[in-house]
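Onboarding guide, step 5: your first structure request.
Type a short instruction followed by the sequence, for example:

Predict the 3D structure of this protein.
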Amino acid sequence: PADVPGCTDTTADNYSADATSDDASCTYPEPAAGITVGESTDFADGNVAYPRNIVLALVADGASSQATQTMTINVTELPDGGANSRVIKTVANGNFFNANPVALVLGENSFSVGSVAFDRTVKVQFSSAAVRFDALTVNGVQLY
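The system replies with structure tokens like these:
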């Protein structure tokens, strides 16, 4: 059979199924901007279902934990199959409440947890450490 030069890397933009020898012509997509929640020091380890989380407030923060807690993240890339997030927070009796999961979308994702009259913990959990972002703001402070 005749030698058919071309790009033989299936991950390349210009992969050719007909190519029998690689001719170094492969081109690749530009990587998405930013870092992943797994790479960011602003996110902590979580659990099996939600391996990364970010703290918006802690009971130890006192009165400031009672205020409205906000987070905005600009997602630039999602893993295959997507990823979910959810808010977890303590309620008046100290127990944790887990909100329903919400699918993350490319672009801006915003979270807002209303004010209360008791000290509390508020976190946002992520179902994948591979979520990539290029902007992160927590309670009005730009972290990334």
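Each response can be followed by summary notes, for example: The chain has a mean pLDDT of 96.
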